[in-house]
Amino acid sequence: MTTAPIASALLLMLTVAGPAARGQTPPVETIDIQKECPVLAGNKIDPNLFTVYQGKKVYFCCASCKESFNAQPDKYLPRLPQFAASIVPFVAVQATSPLSSAPKESNEPAAKVLIVPLGITAFITIVATVLTGLYRRLRPRLMFRLHKILGIAALIFAACHAAIVLLLV
User: Fold this and answer.
1) To 10 degrees, the CA torsion angle through 115, 120, 121, 123?
2) Interval 55-76: pLDDT, tens
3) pTM above 0.70, yes or no
4) CA dihedral angle for residue 116, residue 118, residue 123, residue 129, rounded to 10 degrees
5) Quick check: is 136 in a domain?
6) Does residue 64 sit within a domain?
7) Residues 112-151: pLDDT tens digits?
8) Is 118:157 a contact under the CB 8 Å cutoff?
9) What is the span of the domain harbouring residue 53?
């Protein structure tokens, strides 16, 4: 058994509990101060214009941004340093860069990763539907059945692809 984890745990306990045991106030953890408006990214905040959300002050550049935030606060939380620790990304996807072999983390939603493969699948099923329609005279019953199944599948794939593109991009 190694003593490194035990020693680091003891050191952590001494640094946190030490001042409190001696009657002193424990060190306060510093948090990032908000410098930009969460609604209009890049705009500087007005220190007199804020709202309190989940016990933390959120500053804005103008009154309309404050109204937008109050209408949909969860939409703007990822832009706020006050809430950075409490936000969990949708999916952490590992992707490798073509220039380096080091993996990079991506916080894209899982559905966004499906856009290209679903688009390719929709395109292939549309082409297959057209081809079965063209060759329907060779074997009418078989080709008609295939044409009908592929047409329905192409419609479903294209609708799913369009929904993901419209909602996430």
Assistant:
1) 120
2) 888 888 999 999 998 998 888 8
3) no
4) 170
5) yes
6) yes
7) 777 888 889 888 989 888 888 888 888 888 888 888 898 8
8) yes
9) 46-86
Pairing, β 46-53 against β 56-60: antiparallel
- Identify the residue whose tokens are 């539907």: 129
Amino acid sitting at position 143: M
The SS3 of residue 140 is helix
Q: What contacts 69, CB < 8 A, 6 or more positions away?
A: 38, 39, 51, 53, 58, 60, 76
User: What count of residues does the chain have?
Assistant: 169
Give DSSP secondary structure letters for 44-109: BPEEEEEEEETTEEEEESSHHHHHHHHH-HHHHGGG-GGGGGG---S--EEEE-SS-SSEEEE---
Q: Pick from 77, 64, 65, 71: which is nearest to 37 by CA?
A: 65
Q: Which two tokens stand for residue 73?
A: 């606060």
Letter for the amino acid at 71?
A
Q: Are 41 and 79 in contact (CB under 8 A)?
A: yes
Number of domains the chain is built from: 2
